[in-house]
Amino acid sequence: MNLEKSKKAFIEANQYIPGGVNSPVRAFKSVTINPPFIKEGKGSKIYDIDGNEYVDYVGSWGPLILGHCHPKVVEALKNAAEKGTSFGAPTEIETEMAKLICDAVPSVEMVRMVNSGTEATMSALRLARAYTNKEIIVKFIGNYHGHSDSLLVKAGSGALTHGVPDSPGVPVDIVKNTISAKYNDIEDLKNIFDTCGNNIAAVIIEPVAGNMGVVPSTKEFMTALRDITYKHGSLLIMDEVMTGFRLSYHGAQSLYSVSPDITCFAKIIGGGLPVGAYGGKKEIMEMISPLGPVYQAGTLSGNPLAMAAGVTTLKRLKENPEIYKNIEEKAKRLEEGFKANASSLGIETTINRVGSMLCLYFTKHKVTDFDSAVTSDIGKFAKYFEEMLKEGIYLSPSQFESLFISYTHTDEDIEKTIKANYYAMKKLI
Ligand code: PMP
């Protein structure tokens, strides 16, 4: 596989951009191959500057449920661009977007647009703290909510130990109000609430965690979480940045029949452009400036190009509910194919799949939380990843991420991927 041009481009990028990338995982640090530099994408495929073609299962880390360059999205973007790229003034399409989100997700009565998932969760925390007049935030080990200071807390902290910063530069004083709890562990949650439940502003959770592979919370856990937060007057924040409009048009929350107080979105609602949003009950959202005292703003928030791509994507999903069945069916075929390969080759793997999100771990253990996720053999994963890339299959270079199946993945793509999986796993023996 020739990656010469990409190699040169990476060397040059490294001179001007820290690590040559604008987001760390793109640097392929955990594998020995250089990152291909991407030139273009179409449907389920991406093409690098060396001319290699890949079946793409990263999909820009989740947003591209309709694939690359969906004709309707591109058309909407062109039309929007011709009318002006940014005004910093109200536009009708912002209301259209807000209505689409509120109609789709019943727990969201009002919504504020921001520019990324990080901004959405960060703003949701501020709002929750202001609304409850409490300070502590509980998050779960192995859940990722972006890189704002109070959420960058070391995964692995003991349940009742106050957080320590996960990155230099995050003041200890800020994260002392963040508690890390064990995912899917009701006892741990109860202990935390027993100890400091009267000062917990909110619990934030990925309903299906997509940042330690793919790990769904159990129904019992989610129900217990809703009950305990309700009982203590703490808010429940669902981080649906990844799962929103992916696992269902109505969010992962509809699969659990649990109604959070605040929901965070990003990725799919931007159709591939930089977007985030947070929304919830009117009474809570009305605390945001200019209606209320909680300040939060953004020069490019509700940007017309981002709204055009997002609204077009959401409308396609709304008008074509069969998309969800279709992508789940394809993901299921991948799951079954991978399982059959692993068993015929005698390789111990665990596959977690929820809808069109899927992760293959190199472990014999069931993966239900952070501790079980990290039993995966990441050396094996790195080798597997490289072999898959050589076979023309573009996966995330990290074990602890999901594959994302889009509506544009074809039957041939799925067959090719299952075959590639066989060859790649065979190299591990
Ligand atoms: N929450 C979740 C669940 C995420 O998966 C991510 C990003 N992968 C974020 C928040 C942060 O979003 P962004 O990268 O847009 O800031």
- Judging from the principal axes of the Cα atoms, what is the shape? globular
Order of helices and strands: HEEEHHEHEHEHEEEHEHEEHHHEEHHEEH
**Residues in β-strands, percent:** 15-25%
- The CATH homologous superfamily of the largest domain is called Type I PLP-dependent aspartate aminotransferase-like (Major domain)
* Counted beta strands: 16
List cofactors, ions and other ligands: 4'-deoxy-4'-aminopyridoxal-5'-phosphate
Class inferred from helices and paired strands: alpha/beta
The third-level CATH topology of the largest domain is Aspartate Aminotransferase, domain 2
Radius of gyration: 21 Å
Low-confidence stretches: 155-162
Q: What's the story with the biggest beta sheet?
A: 7 strands, mixed
Q: Report the top-level CATH class of the largest domain.
A: Alpha Beta
Proportion in helices: 25-40%
Report the total helices: 14
Domain count: the total is: 2
Summarize the structure.
This protein has 14 helices and 16 strands. By secondary structure, it is an alpha/beta fold. The strands form four sheets. Strands 4-12-11-10-7-5-6 form a seven-stranded mixed sheet, sandwiched between helices. A four-stranded mixed sheet has the order 1-2-3-15. A three-stranded antiparallel sheet has the order 13-14-16, with helices on one face.
Explain the layout of strands and helices.
Elements: H1 4-16, E1 38-42, E2 45-48, E3 53-56, H2 71-83, H3 92-104, E4 110-114, H4 117-132, E5 136-140, H5 172-175, E6 178-181, H6 186-196, E7 200-205, E8 208-209, E9 215-216, H7 219-232, E10 235-239, H8 252-256, E11 262-266, E12 276-280, H9 282-285, H10 304-319, H11 322-345, E13 350-354, E14 357-361, H12 370-373, H13 378-390, E15 393-394, E16 403-404, H14 411-426
Parallel strand pairs: 3-15, 5-6, 5-7, 7-10, 10-11
Antiparallel strand pairs: 1-2, 2-3, 4-12, 8-9, 11-12, 13-14, 14-16
Helix pairs in contact: 2-10, 3-10, 6-7, 11-14, 13-14
The site of 4'-deoxy-4'-aminopyridoxal-5'-phosphate (PMP) has 16 residues, from helix 4.
